[in-house]
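An example makes the point: we print one protein in full, the chain in one-letter code, the fold tokenised, without further comment:
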Amino acid sequence: MKRLLSIELQKIWKNKASRVLTIAYFVILSFIALIASIKFDIGPIQFHLADQGIFNFPYIWHFNTYIAAILKFFLAIVIVSMMANEYSYGTLKQNLIDGMSKVEFIKSKFLTVVLFALVSTVFVFIMSIILGLCFSSYNEFSIVFTDLEYLLAYFIKLVGFFSFCLFLGIFVKRSAFAIGFLFVWNIVEGIIKGVLTFKIFPDSTIAEKITQFLPLESMSNLIVEPFTRLSFIKTIGTQIGVENIKDYSVHLSAIIIVMVWTVIFMLMSLKILKKRDL
């Protein structure tokens, strides 16, 4: 396992574009801390974002994982390029000639996916702890480590999403087309969700129960938007008569669905690789 992972990391690090994108991802991820400095002065009204509780424990786990998940496309490009380069540079064929089996090859890619997701999760954890200790109004131990399930959801979400990107890289073989396919699929899911929600089942939750099984939608359901949890948003909603009944928790069913998709993507990747003439 260590040997397979070492091979993949060397390939990524020796590729300048992949190296730059990986570093850029973690640099941009750290920019979440800059949100604390955002201030708005509208006449006599002063609005400091950090004072609105976005870095309060335990809310910070929800907020930071949601924001960090948006930036996952940087690493998605690395994952797709990693697979596309195997075909472009002939390293896939060379690895197989050198004795690596196709199962080991897929395993090495999946290990890389898991490593990226794990390092990203640890990075978000450390950054959240630092920001929380600096800005949170609640620093009791029991509160600090409440809602850590958002980190688990974040990790599962990244593994599932990167596995999908890996599958696209193998299926399409060209990074630009694979990324394009990813965005097209996102639009397709949006259309499916819109048709089911507003046309076929407008007055029921049937559409939601169906679309939760779509790959990208299932990943999105792991961590729902956190903004309407903020007290000043709730206050505005109350003033205009809008009641917030959204469920913000991480559900086991959502985790299982994404894990099943992850397995499907990896098995499909292996099946394509076994059938394809390299």
Q: What stands out?
A: The mean pLDDT is 84. The chain has one domain: 2-275. The radius of gyration is 21 Å.
